[in-house]
Amino acid sequence: MSPVSRRPRAALVVASFIVLLSTASASAQESVPPPLPDAGIQEPDAGADAGSAEEVPPSLTPEELAEIEKAFGGDTQQGVPATTSAPPTATPGGGLPLSIPGSGSGTNLLDMSFILDLAAAAFTSKEPLQGGAHDPSRNGFNLQQLELSIGSVVDPYFRFDANIVYSQFGVEIEEAYGTTLALPASLQVRAGQFLTRFGRLNPTHPHAWDFADQPFALSRVFGGEGNRGLGVELSWLTPLPWFVELTGSLTDATGEATARSFLAASNDRVLSPLDLQATGVVKQFFPLTDDLSLMWGLSVATGPNPTGYRNRTDLYGTDVYLRYRPITEASTTLLTFQVETFYRRRQVPGDVLTDFNGYAQAAWRFSQRWAAAARYELGTPARGENGEVAEDPLDPEWTKNRDRISANVSFWPTEFSRLRLQAARDHARWRDEADYSLFLALELVTGAHGAHAF
Amino acid sequence: MRHFRFVAALCAALTLFIAVPARAAVNVVTTLPDLAALTKAVGGDLVQVQSMALGSQDPHRVDAKPSLALALRNADLLISVGLDLEIGWLPNLQTGSRNPRIQVGNAGFLNASQFVRLLEVPATKVDRSEGDVHPGGNPHYLYDPRQAAAVARGIAERLAQLDSKNAATYRANATRFVTELDAARVGWEKRLAGLKGVPVIAFHRTTPYLADWLGFEPIAFLEPKPGIPPNPSHVAQVLVQARQRKVRMVLIESYYNDREAKMVANMIPAQLVVLHGGTDFRAGETYIQHINEMVGNLEKALTAGKGG
């Protein structure tokens, strides 16, 4: 598809976003019900007007309702913002001086946690090919990251999440975004700086990874930090009987470590939505049995690249995640299988380069505290339209296949700490011999208990 | 790029969003099956109830499957145990459900712990050197039918508020259920009168409410600290204590691996009592049947212990 034909459509999406945001608050049907008083249970007569937002009290005629809507700009049901941060007073112990944020009330002002990732590493290679910004990458001790994760409900309409990462010599805002809570029709908008939902691993943080480093597919295609940027995202949970989520986002296409295949370090001015990265994702979930689940994602991203006027990069990816965890009997077993592939197509002067990167991994948690995992990764060199290996402007040395095999054992003393011993054989065919590496990684989590995504 | 055309069309359609007529039944989703059973008892045919977890699952560790977000999407009411029991899996599902009604602070979210007389609320500062502590108090309160009665009344009040047309029915159902539960409780207490003051060993700190109700005394736990699996030195200590105090019962929830508990019970020697972690709501079990089964298991162990 030519870029020209996409221009009006992308503009339409942006325009619709704006219209949608402005009308969301005016939708009276699915708006936020009035807040509860702190005392939990209401007197019956006091609660008479607190019915479900979709109900019209029988005494109200449609004309009356129309009149109210006219007078209040459609905001009929939206009362005073709920006090999301006030714990129910009926909960004893709510006022204790606790050292853990998020006390038992289930509501609190701010969830904060610090995650520390350290690793001792040994490489046989003088120049290890570790691409991830949080990977152990040098002999000796590595501070992979110190991540401050903050999350909170802002008001009945938004929640706020941020991940701020401290390295030894600096701080960066990895993510900081707002998520809508009260849009109608199963829609949700995220705005701010966020990791795009391309694939399975990209939107996650090292805490959720089964390995001490990230697959090289991500650092080669997106950059060491993974694909993220300032932007806006709209997602929709479709009304189908199984889980189908459609996500579309527009993000900044610049960043050496975050949008490597797009504009990377070039500072081109944004003149139209076509100068941004557009990402589309379809996620489907199938609970095959109580114990077995399948998640399948299809992702596509497109954006400009700096090799010439109107040259573009398109990425296509699919991810499959199979999870086996017996829940109908006492068991600590967890088996997961995960495959992710990235197909990249880049327009360069006089040619179109294509390459393929991917990984497959299996993890087996065989007791409450122990797990083992193995991963195979593959990356092909970029080939031109004639099928010959071409000069890759981003990775000129990548003239042959590279594969890497990693295996590890993890030990969790508790849910809040983790030790991981990982070994890998990295075989980049353009090098004389394979490189071997060994990591011992430690992770500590302190503060609020984060919620785990699936 | 068909996807983009679709999203654009969708946004345009949404600006012309039209009201959806309300459904007849109140759609309730609970985190645990015990809460689902209580909701069904007070809601009857007026409610549609679904539990996110099975009774066979450890409520601390439930997978946040996207299909659960799907269930929450259409819920009018979400009922949780609270006290951080579901903290590892519920918040993401609430956000992912895109359902404003069930967000914390709105009428469609009910934290059931507010109706309960809480036990083990830390009076001093706590930190995780104590293990996976619940700083708001112990969340395993649904083992005590007296607390369940209070929760049932609380659920009925909230249903009455959400569906005011049927308020009287919910309150009448709650009264009827509590009467039935109280009658059953008197019978259970009679059957288990022999448990008063009896020392027992338990696996995890799930027992305070049960102990408070039935009067037995949990003297030690097989987990050295909550969430930390048993280790040999600790188990040896527990064994010595158990023999000293002539413990006749070892309690464990069905969702824990009972290997260590079985071994310890054999070595003491004592009866191993497996408590079902929750009502088998999916199979149609009621809360009263669930507690009745638990009482039956305790009674069996009690009589066997006396005989042995």
Folded structure, characterized:
The complex is a heterodimer of chains A (about 450) and B (about 300). Chain A is mostly beta strands and about 450 residues long. Chain A is about 10% helix and about 45% strand. Chain A has three helices and 16 strands. Chain A has helices at about 5-25, 60-70, 215-220; strands spanning about 110-125, 140-155, 160-165, 170-180, 185-195, 230-235, 245-250, 275-285, 290-305, 310-325, 335-350, 350-365, 370-380, 400-415, 415-430, 435-445. Residues about 1-5, about 10-15, about 15-55 and about 75-105 of chain A have low confidence and may be disordered. Chain B has about 300 residues and is of the alpha/beta class. Chain B has helices at about 1-15, 35-45, 65-75, 90-95, 145-160, 165-190, 210-215, 230-245, 260-265, 285-305, and strands spanning about 25-30, 45-50, 75-80, 110, 200, 215-220, 250-255, 270-275. Chain B has a four-stranded parallel sheet with strand order 2-1-3-4, covered by helices on one side. Chain B starts with a helix and ends with a helix. Chains A and B meet through helix 1, strand 6, strand 7, strand 8 and strand 9 of A and helix 1, helix 3, helix 4 and helix 5 of B. Chain A: InterPro entries: Porin_dom_sf. Chain A: This is Zinc-regulated TonB-dependent outer membrane receptor. Chain A: Keywords: Receptor, Signal.
Helix and strand arrangement:
The complex is a heterodimer of chains A (454) and B (308).
Chain A lengths: L2 H22 L37 H10 L39 E13 L16 E16 L2 E10 L2 E11 L6 E9 L20 H6 L6 E10 L5 E9 L25 E11 L4 E13 L7 E13 L9 E15 L2 E15 L4 E10 L22 E13 L2 E12 L6 E13 L7
Antiparallel strand pairs in A: 1-2, 1-16, 2-3, 3-4, 4-5, 5-6, 6-7, 7-8, 8-9, 9-10, 10-11, 11-12, 12-13, 13-14, 14-15, 15-16
Chain B lengths: L1 H13 L11 E5 L2 H11 L3 E5 L14 H8 L3 E4 L9 H7 L12 E3 L33 H18 L4 H25 L7 E4 L5 H7 L2 E5 L10 H13 L4 E5 L5 H9 L3 E5 L11 H21 L1
Parallel strand pairs in B: 1-2, 1-3, 3-4, 5-6, 5-7, 7-8
Helix pairs in contact in B: 2-5, 3-4, 5-6, 6-10
Keywords (chain B): Signal, Transport
Pfam family, one (chain B): ZnuA
Family (chain B): Belongs to the bacterial solute-binding protein 9 family.
